[in-house]
Amino acid sequence: MTAVADLMDYAEVVERFDPVLGLEVHVELSTDTKMFCGCPNLFGGEPNTHVCPTCLGLPGALPVVNGKAVESAIRIGLALNCEIAEWCRFARKNYFYPDMPKNFQTSQYDEPIAFNGHLDVVLDDGEVVRVDIERAHMEEDTGKSLHVGGATGRIHGAEHSLLDYNRAGVPLIEIVTKPIVGMGARAPEVARAYVTALRDLLRAMDVSDVRMDQGSLRCDANVSLMPKGGSEFGTRTETKNVNSLRSVERAVRYEMTRQAAILAEGGTITQETRHFQEADGSTSPGRTKETAEDYRYFPEPDLVPIAPSRAWVEQLRATIPELPWERRKRIQAEWNLTDEELRDLVNTGAADLVAATVDAGAEPGEARSWWVQYLTQQANAREVELADLPIAPAQVARVIALVNSGELTNKLAREVVQGVLAGEGEPDEVVEKRGLKVVSDDSALLAAVDEALAAQPDVADKIRGGKVQAAGAIVGAVMKATKGQADAKRVRELILERVGA
Amino acid sequence: MSNISRDEVAHLAKLARMAVTEEELDVFAGQLDQILDAVAKVGEVAADDIPPTSHAVPLTNVFREDVVRPGLTQQEALAGAPAAEEGRFRVPRILGEEQ
């Protein structure tokens, strides 16, 4: 449908141009209810079952602000070193699109709740880059569209669309950076590192489940180029649909090479929204961007202003937990790691997960081993970031505890983890559902032992005759019969007991 | 004296999804001029010490507890929909791109 774009070699791009980035990150808050009504804020569910007159935009329905969401917004602002507005309002952003049943999105316009902050971001080699934050404001998420009739489920070629408003009205915080300049060839890496740092921060604060694969953390990347040494920003594009950390880096890099090729030919960049294509890492044109005036923002008449008292802000500041970079410094000291070991742990995305697993009661060595070995393999196999694996540190800690208490063998523990990753619930539920408990009930084991001894009378005789090591064959048979769920040591004891050796 | 052009009226009509005839463009341009002039008069009496008012009640920080309240069932939600399919609202083909 669209011709393949010409791309400039990356080395030439950064020799001839300076990239300018602007990153907009949308975070869905993990409150119990939506932003302006008491509907549950849950991912998925049967379509249109988490809805009410307010989030469906029915006539006469009135919104009421979720206090917890405001609290989270202020906390996020504080963690990002922002100033918190003394007084601010919501605004209506007007546009017609079926994913917004009200025909406007309740957002904030020129009075964001938090502004003028920064986030220090550590790159892969340890270099620290300060990213300035323009603002963080509150708004609501849209519904989900399902396009029917198009070949790819995309809007193009669709005959009609189906709308599910379960997500409409879910609290969102939009965090916008100031222009990020002077990064040169490292711009794509900085973009990824920034979103990673933001994700780690939000996770540590427990304000969002920050699942990029489920859309609870989404990044729009604004990219423009200016001639090397220039100071006037070029025309930018905004790439959406960037659903993983790796994609953030790829999308920025792709836009740099695409725009450079156009500019080098004397062409001009169209200011537009572009869609990231996960399959080949390219971007394709979307709609031409509306100007802010076209949204006809005005103060939301149905919601009164928010004026956080300084006392409240200070109270919230005190609730900000140990931040990821502080925690990393602490674990480095506590676990006696070299800079390099710590960086490896951080770069694989394991550091905070291991620390959180330790906080949930696991021993550091065991926690490290699970995340760095088995779970890293699982993440690689699924081509997702370690942190995006659908398992939480507390769940890993629970599995470790089950192994330590003898309820699971290591082999069974991996099966339990598989079950959690497959969405079968908490570790204990998986154990229950899959029947994975170590068989410690002697009567069940004895039956299996008797059966194995009867099946191999010659081996039984050998054991009886004093060849205790021959019991291994019977242990093997029992383990096979119990599908590996028996404690091998106990089986051996029972065999010896049974043959009277 | 403001001066709203026919093009601006047509643009606003498009944003508001309103069908406006050629004749109406002229009528509305004139009427919008008058409305804007009338509103501009407020600026003549509003001094720097008078903050703009968006809300008539002197209230701030009206919050709700983060507690789930019962909503609508799927059947109730879709009851007023002109068309529904697979538990979802069915809408005609969407022109333009996703937001």
User: How many strand segments of chain A?
Assistant: 15
What is the level-2 CATH architecture name of one domain in chain B?
Answer: Orthogonal Bundle
From the helix content, strand content and strand pairing of chain A, which structural class follows?
alpha+beta
Assign an overall shape of chain A. Answer: elongated
Number of helices of chain B: 3
Strand order of the largest sheet of chain A: 3-6-7-10-1-11-12-13-14
With helices defined by DSSP (H or I, 4 residues minimum), what is the helix count of chain A?
Answer: 16
Order of strands across the main sheet of chain B: 2-3
- Taking pLDDT < 50 over at least 5 consecutive residues as the criterion, the unreliable ranges of chain B are none
Please compute the radius of gyration of chain B using only Cα atoms: 22 Å
Structural class of chain B: mainly alpha
Could you give the count of β-strands of chain B?
Answer: 3
Beta content of chain B comes to: 5-15%
Q: Summarize the biggest pleated sheet of chain A.
A: 9 strands, mixed
Q: Specify which chain pair forms the largest interface.
A: A-B, 62 and 38 residues
The multimeric state of the shown protein is heterodimer
In the CATH scheme, the class of one domain in chain B would be Mainly Alpha
Q: In percent, how helical is the residue content of chain A?
A: 25-40%
Helix and strand run of chain B? HHEHEE
The separation of the N and C termini of chain B measures: 37 Å
Q: How many separate structural domains of chain A? A: 3
Short key terms for the protein model shown above:
heterodimer; A: 501 residues; alpha+beta; Arc Repressor Mutant, subunit A; 9-stranded mixed beta sheet; 3-stranded antiparallel beta sheet; 15 strands; 19% strand; B: 99 residues; mainly alpha; Histone, subunit A; two-stranded antiparallel ribbon; 3 helices
